Amino acid sequence: MYLKMSNEIKQVQHDEYHELTLGERIGYGMGDFAQNLVFGTVGGFLALYMTTVNVIGTATAGFIFLFVRIINVFWDPMVGTFVDKRTSKAGKYRPWLLRAGIPLVILAALLFAPLPGVKGSVPFAFIVYFALDLVYSVVNIPYGSLNASLTRNPESVDKLTSTRMMLANGANLLVYTLFPMFVQMAAPKGRSLKDTGLFGLKLHMGNYTDPSAGHAWFGVYSVYMIIGAIALFLCYKLTKERVVATAEQSAEVKTTDLFLELKNNRPLVILGIFFMLAFTFMFFMNTVNGFFNQFVVGHSEWMGAIGLIASIPGIVFPIFWPRLKKIFGKKGFFHLFIGMFIVGEILTYIWSLNGMHDALWLAYVATFIKQWGLTSATGFMWALVPEVVAYGELKSGKRNAAIINAIMGLFFKIGFTLGGAIPLWFLAAYGFNETAAHQHANALAGINLTAIWIPAVLALVSMIIMQLYPISDKDVAEINQQLDEKRAQLKEAE
């Protein structure tokens, strides 16, 4: 009897330390691919669309972003608790990719819908964006929790992070390179043959910030949402949950566990603050990127080419992340790449100077270095979430994966809020004119401040925060060993 029980424990441990196949890693990464199509486009272009094409005031748009994110402070913990307490034959987390995924892509497309009677309507924009954000949590929190349920194998987690970030940045290629190019190609007003910056490629492109471009935005984004829905389905089909809470652990989950995790899980708090800062400076830059290219350097037609350069590091280099982590260490990895981001921002400032606007080579170099640093730092940080979940389970006896991901989601959304709302208020304060084809010097200074200097300073602060992160790779191995011993004891006591 004891031998049979021992073999069952070993089999459970074998499943939990399963080495993920390439197909499983790609399957999971399709979830990142899908969500980046949705929220990458929203984060990178909604502010520009809302204030120019949809002619909603800059400050008003900022308040819409802020209010919706405040609601998430209450919504995300409820979602995390709801998901952690329930399961089904299809799994605890996977089913939500389909249950909420379809409404997600429909609502996202509606954000850019040029519907008669609602153009410039603040209530319509607010309601759709509000609903989208609530549904996004019901997809994103279970998806993030699924990451920690696939395996407890540390090497597989590192490889999984690399694979998912390659797919996430593949989606960024579609968002930041092709999306603005496709929309400008479909925009009807001001069409002319323009140099795209892609090796001499010239295309007939229109003004995509003119109100007449509404159908162009909606048509392109709708195609993206269909692709996103397919990717979510593939994620559902190609993944399997192996490390999940027991029925007893699930029954004990409470919303107040969120506060216990924040109180007792120090690595979670430090990583959360790092998440918040990282996404703040990322979305500061992304929110005003279109403004910067349109009004500061005057080369919106280059956005596709520059977006292509920006996508290369995130697609090609993640395969080297596990090796680089071993060379530089966990903290050294983040310091290296955040430092690269800051250097890239300084080069972007040089590009913004009078006389340098036409230097396409400088735009390429600045963007490549900046995005290499950004995608590496903000991509690999997801590899730390499973070890934070394991640390929390060791301390509390509860595997609150969804609640912890809800907490991480809160930090992410605080960063997304600050990075989406504050830049717009800065632009309004600096006198940005939503209807003007050219901006005065003060408005341009506001764009530079929000696109370059504030992100650089926040990146520097995030380096300091990461230095405080307490879990080493040796600690991860010890945590897993202690959890194995606890689970074996519980199994034998049954």
From TrEMBL:
GO terms for biological process: carbohydrate transport; sodium ion transport. GO terms for cellular component: plasma membrane. It holds the Pfam family MFS_2. The keyword Transferase does not apply. GO terms for molecular function: symporter activity. The chain crosses the membrane at residues 56-75, 96-115, 121-146, 167-187, 215-236, 268-290, 302-321, 333-352, 372-391, 403-432, 444-465. Keywords: Membrane, Transmembrane, Transmembrane helix. Signal peptide: none annotated. The keyword Metal-binding does not apply. InterPro entries: MFS_2, MFS_trans_sf, Na/Gal_symport. This is MFS transporter.
